[in-house]
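Standup notes, protein team

Yesterday: finished cleaning the Streptomyces indicus set.
Today: 8-oxo-dGTP diphosphatase structure.
Blockers: none.

Input for 8-oxo-dGTP diphosphatase:
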Amino acid sequence: MNERIVVVGAALWHEGRMLAARRSAPPELAGRWELPGGKVEEGERPEEALVRELREELGIEAEAVERIPGEWPLGRPGYVLQVWSAKLLRGEPAPLEDHDALRWLGPGELDAVDWLDQDRPAVLEAARRPHP
């Protein structure tokens, strides 16, 4: 049986800029940048997982706004990335889990970091859409 595991990522916008998070683990991903997020747990909707993961990873309250069209395979069999645009409601993001740096990127700066390969198309698509 092929189990399909959805990982949600947040194109988190605040004041016209998108948040990028630099991985600190695992070693093969460390130092590269991603959209923050994580695995959808059993019985959880993707939007709920996104809000929970942002709370756990960054210590913020956010709202999932719109699913970005597309789905991207991740490095592990059965894992796929779905991305949602999101807006910051409360708090100042801090790298609490699996990250060692955060950076807000304006529209002209999105290629200033070394995004993980699977995040690149989602970042480009999120940047083309209206920001929440």
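Follow-up from PR in the comments: The longest helix spans residues 46-58.
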